[in-house]
Amino acid sequence: MKELLEGFLSRLETETTPKEGEYLGDDGLLYCGKCHTPVQCRKELFGKMRILPCTCRCRQEEMRRQKEADEARERMNTIHRLKATGIQERHLLDWRFDVAEETDTIRWAKHYVENWRKVRDKNLGLLLWGDVGTGKSFAAACIANVLLEQAVPVLMTNFSRILNQMGAMYTEERYQYIASFNHYSLLIIDDLGIERSTEYAKEQVYAVIGERYKANLPLIITTNLTIRELRNPATVADARIYSRVLEMCTPVQVSGGDRRQAVSRQKQELVKDVLFSGKGGEVSQ
């Protein structure tokens, strides 16, 4: 073993003949002509003083910058992959805090991501309920996009999509599919209550929520159902689902005007301005 190490060190030892960009110092070691720090060092190994290569300061800085660039590139690739799988409806990528009106809902949604580490550790889920168009899905998507930019695995989907994807699966495949949601640090289920109201559908909805419960991972759910409907379900199957949801997620009412109608009015005004300005045209209301 010693002979092998001796042979390795002998091959590693370097000559003191300067290469381009180097010079020989007074101590007999080679130095970098740019940063004037050594590219060789003396080390005593196995009873012999040896001249071995080392890294000069400017090369160390170059390696550091390269490592940071590689890490930044890998982080961006990771974020791109997470967004590609985590946001299944492309328009949701545009729902971000920087384009949001500063409402109470948006303020507490910002607090949620600002305190994400505590939210995750304490398994703090949310149930966003309210009328159609009040901004529940928008707030949830804002949360998802910020966390994805921080390379946090998030999945935002809905039970209709989940049930459609499970349709052609065998039992074992369904188990694996449901378990795969636990790869995401945060699961957001949009529009609870719009999925098919069949015994099979309700069983799978309960399985998804139950798996999240067992994994002790946070869940955000949005719904147009009222808190009264959630606390007084019409069927036993609904009671199982809503009871578990209310146990995992703190209800937060999202109120306000119908955001969709406001957007529609803005688009109508834009159409008037772009297409009919000065031409006497009208847009039907």
Provide an overview of this structure:
The chain is of the alpha/beta class and 285 residues long. The chain folds into 2 domains: 35 residues, no CATH class; 171 residues, P-loop containing nucleotide triphosphate hydrolases (Rossmann fold), CATH 3.40.50. It has 11 helices and 9 strands. The strands form 3 sheets. It has a 5-stranded parallel sheet. Strands 1-2 form a two-stranded antiparallel ribbon. The longest helix has 30 residues. It starts with a helix and ends in a 10-residue tail after the last helix. The relative contact order is 0.10.
Summary, kept brief:
This protein has 285 residues and is of the alpha/beta class. 50% of the residues lie in helices and 16% in strands.
- SSE order: HEEEEHHHEHEHHEHEHHEH
Number of strands: 9
Proportion of beta-strand residues: 15-25%
- For the CA atoms, what is the radius of gyration? 30 Å
Sheet of most strands: 5 strands, parallel
Oligomeric state of the chains present here: single chain
CATH superfamily of the largest domain: P-loop containing nucleotide triphosphate hydrolases
> Portion of residues in helices?
40-55%
Tally of domains = 2
